[in-house]
Structure formats: structure tokens, C-alpha cells
Design a protein that fits this description.
Blueprint (H helix, E strand, L loop, with lengths): L17 H13 L6 E2 L4 E9 L8 H17 L4 E7 L4 H6 L3 E6 L3 E5 L5 H12 L2 E2 L10 H5 L2
Helix pairs in contact: 2-4
Main location: mitochondrion
Subcellular location: Mitochondrion
Pfam family, one: L51_S25_CI-B8
Length: 152
Amino acid sequence: MAKPKTLNSMFPGLPKSRLLKQATRINIIHGSTATAFKFDPKFTRLDLILPQNRLHKPSIGLRQFWKHNLPTLKFHNYDTEFHVLKVQTDSDQELAKCPTKVVIHTESGNQEVSCEGISHSDILAKVVQLTGATPVDPEVLKGLDLNTVAHQ
């Protein structure tokens, strides 16, 4: 019988306890001072556009941004819509033309960040710069104390 798919591939090294696993996932998504930012309310939506093909090297940074940074941004910007559009291509020529970008929507227009061949941390820095996002207060980022959770 096949093992059920778990989130351990996304969150490696989680504790065995179910409660500690959930608390650790929350702390990871909650972010750190380097990854947790709050957008101005005028930014209404953020779109990620990337090819469906996982082996497309120019889009690896955007995939990592999607996996590592987007959950934290969504957590702290609950009033902003986030969409991921995966484009299906049938040939290598179409794949080469497929956009790899982030589109930031405001009340007055759109801004685009080309993400081809850029690391996820550079993409985050560009998104923060274009949105004028502010770091989340470190007091808010304390997260759950796993020692307290373990004893409950």
C-alpha cells in the first residue's frame, strides 16, 4: 500500500508529535524579520506566472519564492489576493516564451517583476521594494513556544 503524501517535503525535519508538527509549521509560515513584510492596503493582488514544467531552470527562483516566501506574505497580508498561474506548454519553443514573473496590482495599475533566472531572495527584495512593504514588528514574530506546546 502506498504511503499517503505528507507536507514533510515542504517542511523537512519536523518533529514526530502531531501537535509539535503543526506548531512548527505555523512558526515556519509565520516567518522571520528577513521574510515577513506587510503591504500597504493599496496593493490589492499579487500574481505569480510560471511554466507548469518543473525542470525549467529560469523559473526555479520563482518556484522557490512560491514555496518559501509566498506563505509568509499571505499570512501577514490577509487582505491581499494571491494567485498562482501555471502555464501549460506543449513544446520547448513555447516553454522558452513562457513568462516567469510576478505581477503586483494596485488600485491605479500594475507593476511587473521579471523573475527569469533570479533567486527567491532577490524576487522577495524586488517585491518589497516595489510595494514599499514594511517589516513586520519583531514582537509579532515571536511565534509559538515549542517547549510549552510539547507539555500540553
